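About this split. The held-out portion is used to measure sequence recovery: a designer receives only the structure tokens and must propose an amino acid at every position. Recovery is the fraction of positions where the proposal matches the reference. Here is one held-out target exactly as it appears in the evaluation file.
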């Protein structure tokens, strides 16, 4: 039997990215076949030259053709791509426009929403707290968060049985189909249900969850659920007595030399300095009362409430710094012990992953590589943005790519697959990488 290449396995995972490792407000995208060919956006593409910024490619010209072609195909204004080899930043470029209105180009270190790539960050923070003795994998989440429970207990008694381990692995019982929608993308509905002014905060969302039923017995299956990681953010706050963002920046990001990652804002006017502008295909009611219709990237969800599951804003370069801190062989500073890394990448004992070539570990998609370190990956999809992060343990190559638009509706799944295939194929086509380290150029 011919074993599919790891590149093909990643692309296959990408076909289900909305349900596996995507933070998406679209519920229809997962019905699209990855074999769909011409995207709907192809009719509005342009042949205009796409600007590039950053250090010279130095023998990595393959990306100079592949990325602009992909942007034209899908009518995406801009993207940033960065590659690390054995812990050194060997390639980083900006492509296209960060803001079409003013013509500003994407820089290699431009800031983008990273969506569900926030989940590996939250997983590492959680595992770090376990190493510090402040938390345990089998701790009951809602014994820690008992302040969120109604006086007469949760609607579903199984809620108190859910553990930190299960939330990390998306096996805690949460199922958007049981709830009827993804609460993370319904800040008005959740707030109104809880009797507070929209948009719903992360705390309000977790309180809303205690009145919902689980979709399956905890620990018996896998269902990707943003709300599980939102809940982990509240666990981190409870055990550290510190705001989630502050704790992460001080204890995880800052030691790795990452100073520009922050939790993003919902409104366009509140975007960070050096953050790109996001482009969508429709408008939506603002989650803020009285603000009317807004572009979908600035109204589908409340980004601060997404903090631990999808709220971070950062650069492709900083994502590589983060991976360098996770893989003990690469970085000057190691975040986790080898034993913890083994737990993070272990195959969960649920039927979904029996015999599978890939699985979801703790915060990462994991592809075993035999006797070498596994491939770790995650993507992040929000209205108006898409990101992809992959770290191959067998050749110590890491790639991060961020885009400021994604495909609309039923084309999203096809877009996701093609984005990953383009990036991984281009990576594979580079035979020799420059002998250089560009990290110091981008503090």
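Reference sequence for scoring:
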């Amino acid at each position: 039997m011919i074993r599919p290449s790891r590149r093909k396995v990643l692309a296959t995972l990408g076909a289900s990215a909305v349900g596996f490792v995507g933070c998406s407000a679209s519920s229809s995208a997962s019905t699209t076949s990855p074999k769909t060919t011409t995207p709907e956006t192809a009719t509005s593409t342009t042949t205009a030259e796409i600007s590039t910024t950053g250090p010279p490619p130095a023998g990595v010209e393959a990306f100079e053709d592949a990325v602009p072609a992909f942007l034209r195909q899908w009518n995406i204004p801009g993207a940033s791509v960065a590659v690390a080899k054995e812990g050194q930043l060997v390639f980083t470029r900006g492509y296209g426009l960060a803001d079409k209105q003013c013509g500003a180009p994407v820089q290699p270190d431009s800031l983008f929403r990273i969506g569900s790539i926030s989940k590996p960050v939250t997983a590492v923070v959680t595992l770090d707290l376990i190493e510090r003795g402040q938390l345990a994998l089998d701790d009951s989440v809602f014994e820690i968060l008992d302040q969120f429970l109604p006086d007469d207990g949760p609607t579903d008694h199984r809620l108190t049985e859910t553990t930190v381990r299960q939330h990390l692995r998306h096996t805690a019982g949460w199922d958007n189909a049981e709830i009827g929608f993804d609460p993370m993308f319904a800040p008005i509905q959740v707030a109104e249900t809880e009797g507070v002014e929209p948009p719903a905060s992360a705390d309000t969302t977790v309180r809303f969850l205690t009145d919902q039923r689980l979709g399956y017995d905890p620990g018996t299956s896998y269902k990707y659920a943003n709300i599980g990681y939102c809940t982990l953010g509240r666990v981190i706050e409870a055990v550290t007595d510190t705001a989630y963002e502050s704790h992460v920046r001080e204890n995880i990001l800052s030691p790795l030399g990452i100073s520009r990652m922050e939790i993003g804002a919902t409104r366009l006017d509140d975007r960070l300095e050096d953050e790109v502008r996001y482009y969508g295909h429709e408008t939506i009611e603002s989650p803020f009362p009285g603000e009317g219709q807004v572009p979908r990237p600035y109204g589908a969800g409340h980004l601060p409430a997404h903090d631990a599951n999808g709220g971070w804003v950062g650069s492709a370069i900083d994502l590589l710094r983060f991976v360098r801190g996770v893989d003990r062989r690469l970085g000057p500073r190691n975040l986790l012990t080898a034993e913890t890394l083994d737990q993070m990448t272990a195959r969960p004992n649920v039927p979904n992953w029996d015999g599978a070539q890939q699985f979801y570990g703790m915060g990462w998609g994991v592809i075993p590589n035999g006797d070498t370190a596994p491939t770790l990956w995650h993507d992040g999809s929000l209205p108006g943005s898409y990101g992809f992060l992959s770290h191959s343990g067998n050749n110590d190559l890491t790639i991060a790519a961020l885009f400021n638009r994604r495909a609309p509706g039923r084309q999203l799944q096809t877009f996701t697959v093609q984005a990953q295939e383009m990036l991984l194929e281009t990576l594979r086509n580079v035979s020799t990488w420059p002998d250089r380290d560009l990290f110091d150029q981008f503090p």
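Annotator remark: Confidence is low (pLDDT under 50) at residues 1-47.
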